[in-house]
Amino acid sequence: MRNLFVTLLLAAGVFAQTSTPEIPPNDAVRIREFYRLAAQLQDGVWPGWSSTPAPLLLVTQEAEFLTHHPSPPKDFQKIGDDLYARLRQFPTALQATFPAFGPPSIIVIGEPENTEAKTSTPWVFTVMHEHFHQLQDGRPGSYQAVSSLGLAHGDNTGMWMLNYPFPYDNPELGKLFTHLRDLLLTALNEPDLKKFKVFARQYIIARREFFTQLSASDRKYLSFQLWKEGIARYVQIKSAEAAANYRPTPEYAALPDYETFERYAREARSDTLSELKKADLATWKRIVVYSFGASEGLLLDRLHPEWKQRYFAQLFTLDPYFEY
Description:
The chain is built from twelve helices and six strands. It has helices at 2-18, 25-45, 120-137, 142-147, 160-163, 171-188, 193-212, 216-242, 250-253, 261-278, 281-284, 288-303; strands spanning 56-59, 63-67, 77-80, 83-87, 95-98, 106-110. The longest helix is centred in the last third of the chain and has 27 residues, at 216-242.
């Protein structure tokens, strides 16, 4: 009997190792909704966005699921139509976009409950944010251009983008940032066009003063982050607002953590502005670029409505839009 028990345990172990992973049903629904949503609204949010490939790798507790990839790596097993799986290798809380298997860049993201999104609808728009990074990364020569910034200092992992030694703790810089932040919020919250232009000009002058306090490398780093992460957050907001009247599929609306797109759209902009109001350079460090850069994008919508057409003409800086 003991030998039979051991044999059954060994057989169960072999089965567990060889069984085909199955994507959790709710995750499959969310992924399908992202691709459906993107197809309907992305070009209205950003011209030409739909031409960008959108491979996605979902990271669950046990496995990873890859879809929309032109050439899945050999360690992935095909488990469905345009769906591949392997045992988990990335952290379950990851939400990033990078060329994990070589170009093109891949959205690598955990399940909602394991990421900052927490629930389905914020998760879908986080994926839209990451999909915009695919547009940024997919421009010809983009990786070479990032390298030419000279900010990596031998770091080939890309972690310098998170760990660059920016002088967040400089008290004078912190004061200037707080003043700049408040001017930006004042301009954005002013409905009167004439007053708005006055506040916007004050903001542009203060912005120029703030950036002149930075070294050349620090200025390049902050400009790069605002251009990349800040505008991706801006696109996340604009995607949400464009989806205010979007009708999700019945299977998505039946998810237990479902939140209407209308509600998320109503709060996306105000949530970012509220975040900016609390932003502190010394304590938040790099995190300030998300709300700050997004708010600059919203300001540019009023100052220069055609600004998106020049966004890729001069990479990694928004400076040209803030000149008189």
